[in-house]
Design brief:
29 helices, 7-stranded mixed β-sheet, 40% helix, alpha+beta
């Protein structure tokens, strides 16, 4: 996929995940009896990549200022400074931030606002989530998260280039009850400035309530608010100086298009009817009120409709209407009031048979002592096409033209309502492409984009009846089967989809093979709402991917139970560090040559007050996902150093580092602080990393490793030999130690390949002057093999399991006694 489209897809997915995560984080930090969560619990630590999207807002004398910003937020604001007042920011950003922060404080709850920004002719929509907090230093602080939602679209091409009228695009501003209360101009045509009689470029980003032109009147704002609330457009007229202006309002969610037309000539037609009628470039005619025959037509009407004047004057109104509208149009025409004005759109047929869409403005008048209609016609065919294009863009994915998430959920809600009334079932199939990331990495994003288009074509070819295929974002798709669907039907559909999507693709001369995993949920058993059904289908999808991919799985209630357990663990983890539930156990590292303890590896343990000991394999991945691994890793480092300073001076401590800790860019300062506070010499601290540290931002991470080594700290490469590029990492950084993975030690006495690998690693260590340590030693046979192959150190159950700090002294004494006996 292209960089911009891939980024938009990633943003969409992240936003879909990030906003609920931040809401839950705020809720989890809310303490009993307090209206607001504390700033330290919400904003300090644990944000991970979300920190780039965060801003800190302070309020002073009722006005907000942006105090701190992440990298993404700085780019959005166009300002990298600190303590920037709102009036110094772009108006679209300032409006959204003020709305979100003000409503969040007013409600004492997180508040999600929407910002619409017109940049370089492209309309972008951003979600702005405000998290109100209070600080122990006093005052209210607001953490604001910003991220782009969905794809951008060219509002300029879609609306403004299709009409010569004055066009203004407005963004709706909502209050704390989510009701519209004001509007901000996000783009406009130059013709609008002339029609409103304002200075050039004075309209851009202006709020209507603060303007002094006719659109800023209370009456006009009230009309616009009503249009947004009802989600429907209409026309009305206003007087501006000596002119009459007609405003045509069209609503696209929170974006409002206002088309301004000067109808002053029509208003003045009584004074100069013949000049207006005959020479007017707008098509006009006069109808007989009783017979609906054309009495007069002007040159513009003759030219626009293509009928010769003589033919036109022999026709009646219904002859330019489509036959299927004759009855309804006749009734509508009879019911038009005395002004002759109609807000409806009319379909007219031209002489060549082509249809156009028009608006009409008319008035009853006497013509040659006969009552008739004077009608002026505005052809809005192109405008309607533009509106249709915008409506399509709002509901479809820009790359694949499949339904997007919004349309999919709306159609799913409708299908569930219908199926509930009929007692039928609706199926949702969530689809994730297997190996798609490899295609992007190997062939590039343009190839990835073409692959996604072909995937969409294959999905469309499999749709039947009322089925709907949608792209949810990235390489995630969904299919809804609205007809009464049995589990067998859903199973057959999933099998067909996997088969169709897994067949080879030919793109630019390359044969590309991917797969698909599918999760299935059926109403009403798996859910009665669109959110519940999608959530459960997504759980089933994760099970399918865990089960090897290329398969489909139905939702089971056990999946929901596991998800609830996961959410419960997240909540417990956030409290565990503050409640002192974590502790360190230490496993000895034994020097083979001297048979003495050369150090201890610090291993984190969680003693849950109700559930007892919880395995690190269960809680460490969760801690990384929720952003807790940073503060947890810092605690381990400080606690381990404080304990190790009490050991004999020749005994070192080894602490494991997570790749997540490198992202914060303050790891070196944390290590310096831990050493300084404990008084532990740097040479006694050993930091263990895995090869995953090298998989992202490699150069930056290597720079951090060099800074740590310059402190005098030792760096060890853990699980050596299990990765893809272990040898290349030894070239990129001079490690002090490599640890032989326990998988090679386990079968050392049984398999010659394990012996060969251990021999090679030990030889490599000797050649590079790197200490080698074998993990998972459980038998004396394994120890003898390792000693024979020249391994330097060992650790495992043969010597001791990881023990609490209170037992360290006893372990040292026991090994000291062994050394004395050996002497």
């Amino acid at each position: 996929m292209s960089g911009a489209k891939k980024q938009a897809a990633n943003i969409d997915v992240r936003m879909f995940e990030d906003v609920p995560i931040l809401r839950r984080k705020w809720q989890a930090a809310l303490r009993p009896g307090e209206d607001l969560a504390r700033y330290e619990d919400v904003m300090l630590g644990g944000l991970g990549r979300l920190a780039d999207h965060m801003m800190l807002l302070k309020r002073d004398h009722g006005a907000f200022a942006v105090s701190r910003t992440g990298r993404y937020a700085q780019k959005w604001l166009g300002d990298e400074g600190w303590d920037v007042p709102m009036e110094a920011l772009p108006p679209d950003c300032a409006t959204a931030l003020t709305e979100a922060a003000g409503n969040a404080i007013a409600n004492s709850r997180p508040y999600l606002a929407t910002a619409h920004s017109m940049r370089d002719g492209m309309m972008r929509t951003y979600d702005v989530l405000a998290l109100p907090t209070f600080s122990r230093w006093g005052g209210t602080l607001v953490g604001a998260y910003v991220n782009q939602r969905g794809a951008q679209y060219n509002l300029l091409d879609a609306i403004f280039s299709t009409t010569d009228d004055g066009v203004i695009a407005l963004s709706t501003i909502r209050d704390a009850t989510s009701s519209p209360f004001d509007f901000q101009i996000v783009h406009h045509k130059q013709a609008a400035e002339k029609l409103l009689n304002v200075a050039e470029r004075s309209l851009q980003r202006q709020r209507l309530s603060t303007s002094d032109h006719p659109l800023g009147s209370e009456a006009v704002i009230a009309q616009l608010k009503a249009a947004v609330s009802k989600n429907e457009g209409y026309q009305f007229e206003i007087e501006s100086d000596d002119r009459s202006l007609r405003l045509g309002v069209t609503v696209f969610a929170d974006i409002v298009s206002v088309v301004i037309s000067d109808v002053t000539p029509l208003k003045r037609r009584e004074a100069s009817f013949r000049l207006l009628f005959d020479s007017n470039p707008i098509p006009m005619w006069v109808l007989d009120l009783e017979t609906m025959a054309f009495l007069k037509v002007n040159d513009a009407a003759v030219q626009h409709y293509g009928y010769p004047r003589k033919t036109f004057l022999q026709m009646k109104a219904h002859e330019i209407w489509p036959k299927d509208e004759w009855a309804s149009y006749t009734c509508a025409l009879r019911n038009i009031d005395k002004t002759g004005q109609s807000d409806r759109h009319w379909r007219h047929v031209k002489a060549d048979g082509g249809e156009i869409c028009v608006l009409t403005y008319g008035r009853r008048l006497m013509v040659d002592k006969r009552e008739g209609y004077l009608v002026a016609v505005a052809d809005i065919t192109e405008r309607r096409k533009a509106e249709a294009r915008i409506a399509h863009m709002a509901n479809h994915d820009g790359l694949t033209n499949l339904a997007n998430r919004a349309l999919h959920q709306a159609r799913l809600r409708d299908a569930l309502q219908t199926s509930h009334a009929l007692g039928e079932r609706v199926a949702v199939l969530c689809i994730d492409l297997d190996l798609f990331k490899s295609v992007n990495d190997s062939f590039g994003h343009p190839t990835g984009d073409r692959l996604l288009k072909e995937v969409a074509d294959r999905l469309r070819s499999q749709m039947r009846g009322n089925d709907l295929a949608a792209r949810l974002g990235g390489d995630e798709f969904a299919v809804m089967r609205a007809a009464d669907t049995s589990p067998v039907d859903a199973s057959d559909c999933a099998a067909r989809l996997i088969s169709a999507l897994s067949a080879p693709y030919e793109i630019d001369g390359n044969q590309i093979v991917i797969g698909a995993s599918i999760g299935i949920a059926l109403s009403p058993g798996d859910g009665t709402s669109d959110e519940e059904l999608m959530r459960n289908a997504d759980m089933a999808l994760y099970r399918a991917k865990d089960d090897g991919r290329g398969v489909y799985r139905f939702f089971e209630r056990e999946m929901d139970r596991q998800a609830q357990q996961r959410r419960e663990m997240e909540s417990d983890l956030r409290r565990a560090l503050a409640n002192g539930e974590f502790e360190l156990h230490y496993q000895p590292v034994v020097d083979i040559a001297s048979d003495t303890i050369s150090g201890f590896e610090a291993l984190l343990r969680w003693r849950h007050p109700d559930k007892g000991m919880i395995s690190p394999a269960e809680f460490i991945p969760v801690a990384e996902d929720i952003g807790l691994i940073g503060p947890l890793g810092e605690w381990v480092l400080r606690e381990g150093c404080n304990e190790a300073v009490n050991w004999p001076s020749e005994v070192r401590i080894a602490v494991n580092l997570s790749p997540v800790q490198f992202r914060g860019r303050n790891l070196v300062q944390i290590v310096i602080s831990a050493l300084a506070n404990s008084g532990l010499p740097p040479k006694r601290l050993e930091l263990e990393i895995t090869e995953s540290v090298f998989l992202a931002e490699t150069e930056a991470n290597i720079a951090i490793l060099h800074q740590l080594r310059e402190l005098g700290v030792s760096i060890s490469l853990d699980d050596f030999g299990t990765g893809y590029s272990s040898l290349s990492y030894l070239r990129r950084f001079p490690f002090d130690k490599i640890k032989i993975d326990r998988s090679f030690v386990k079968d050392l006495a049984k398999r010659t390949d394990c012996v060969a690998i251990v021999r090679a690693i030990s030889g490599l260590g000797r050649s590079l002057n790197i200490t080698t340590t074998a993990e998972g030693v459980e038998t004396t046979d394994q120890l003898d093999w390792l000693r024979a192959e020249g391994c330097n150190e060992v650790q495992g159950f043969l010597f001791s399991a990881a023990r609490p700090a209170a037992e360290i002294e006893q372990l040292l004494l026991r090994f000291g006694a062994r050394e004395s006996r050996a002497a």
